[in-house]
Amino acid sequence: MGSITPTQVAVIGCGFIGLPAALLAVAAGHTVIAFDTDPDRVRRLADGEPYVPDVSAEQLQSALATGRLIPTGDPDALSGFDVALITVPTPTKGDRPDLSCVEAASKTVAAHLRPGATVILESTTYPGTTENLVVPILETSGLTGGRDFHVGYAPERINPGTPLIELRSVPKIVAGIDDESRAAVAAFWSRLVDEIVLAPDIGTAELAKLIENTFRLVNISLVNELTRNALALGVNIWDALPLAASKPFGYMAFHPSVGAGGHCLPSDTRYLAWRIREATHTPALLIETATRINDEMPEYVAGRIVTGLLRRRNSLAGARVVVVGATYKPDIPDLRESSALKVAASLRGYGLTVVVVDPLVPGDAPLVLPKLTPEHIADASVVALLVAHRDLDYPLIATGSYVFDACAALPLAPNIERL
Predict the structure, then answer these.
(1) What does the alpha-carbon distance between residue 356 and residue 324 come to, in Å, rounded to a whole number?
(2) Which of 266, 328, 337, 341 sits between 20 and 30 A of 158, alpha carbons compared?
(3) What fold is seen in the domain 8-200?
(4) Which of 124, 110, 139, 101 is nearest to 262 (CA)?
(5) Are residues 193 and 172 in contact, defined by beta-carbon separation less than 8 angstroms?
(6) What is the pLDDT of residue 365?
(7) Cα 157 to the center of its chain, rounded Å
(8) Fold identical between 8-200 and 215-418?
(9) What is the mean pLDDT of residues 60-85?
(10) How far apart are CA 108 and CA 282, in angstroms?
């Protein structure tokens, strides 16, 4: 089977991973069939209305103007593709991986697979997924992977909040089920990004992606565990961490927070822990402990806020909380697995009245107000600053009678307590 120069690219799933990849492919000169099963998403694409924070309206409309970005919800439009990127969510159900979207996408691709094509899984998943799940589904087409078509894995490295143009500079790991497949994947991605990193095999590439995200969650959980115990030690964690960070080797700075959210870190770490337990019949103790600490942080933060309230008033009756920041990460309008919203839910469990304000969240988001007002601050028994967006009105927030600052974004004062 000879290699081909791809000209028609099918992107299956046009969300946080797929849409940026689609625009990179258009910029490289490809025709892109942007397929999604969500009719509203397809409509917004066709109208040049981006729903991913890293893609601007100008970038999307410019891609549409080339005539080489074709949004569709019709699977038949995929016929004749040269390269298919599977860029669908890989969530969890409880502590177990949920690969139903990958299965459905693989079936869609299999129905339109032809000899000489290349299929690349981009979604984060555990080792063995591509070869043991995706390939058998693709082979229901009657074609054989590695003989009739190429199969590869190239894990996404999207960092929400990073402009599309900067994604080109992020090295791309590529792998294939054989040398020809890896070469085909590398040839495709080398036209989209500046640097290709060749993995020896697909399983290693799948594990590498999980290592990246597990590394972050373990270190976030370590710092949060230290934060939870620093008070008992009589130490200010916010003073200790910069001292540790002054070491020029062997240390990477992480900061206290209300917990890691978003799709990647909590979910991907569970993928790795589950796969290790399945393969070894023993738990991945450090990884599972880190996950548990992260899961506990919203309740811990809510408890700290309640304790602070009770130090200042006789009871919680009539207390009003204003939570500032609802997204899972500063400066992006993304509520997926938001730890801040989990804190708000825990506070409501104490019987408190809770108002959540976040100017970055779309106006139609339930229970989240878009504008922080002086009245919010004046009426609040406590202002809980949980996500430190760049353009918040910090002087206004600091005027609250009691402010719980989970981000160390405000100067210390008698009315301000840090996490």
Answers:
(1) 6
(2) 341
(3) Rossmann fold (3.40.50)
(4) 124
(5) yes
(6) 67
(7) 10
(8) yes
(9) 96
(10) 36
CB 309 within 8 A of CB 364: no
- Nearest one of 415, 365, 357 to 385, comparing CA atoms: 357
Three-class secondary structure of residue 401 per DSSP: coil
> Rounded to an integer, what distance in angstroms lies between the CA atom of residue 343 and that of residue 360?
18
What is the band of 263 on the pLDDT scale with cuts at 50, 70, 90?
confident
- Residues 403-414 pLDDT 10s: 999 999 999 999
Angle among Cα 52, 55, 60 to the nearest 5 degrees reads 110
Lowest mean pLDDT among 157-161, 166-170, 298-302, 363-367: 363-367
The pair of structure tokens assigned to 367 is 């229970």
How many Å apart are CA 281 and CA 145, to the nearest integer?
Answer: 31
Q: Which of 116, 275, 114 is nearest to 210 (CA)?
A: 275
DSSP secondary structure of 358-397 = -TTS-TTSTT-BS---HHHHHH-SEEEE-S--TTS-HHHH
**Domain 215-418 is found in CATH 3.40.50.720:** yes
Residue type for 190, please? S
Give dist(CA 54, CA 43) in Å, integer.
19
**Residues carrying an active site annotation:** 264
Pairing between β-strand 196-198 and β-strand 172-176 as defined by DSSP bridges: parallel
Delimit the domains of the chain by residue range: 8-200, 215-418
Both tokens of 288, joined, read 């599972």
Rounded to 5°, the CA angle 207-51-45 comes to: 105
Strand ranges, E, within 76-171: 83-86, 92-93, 96-97, 118-121, 150-153
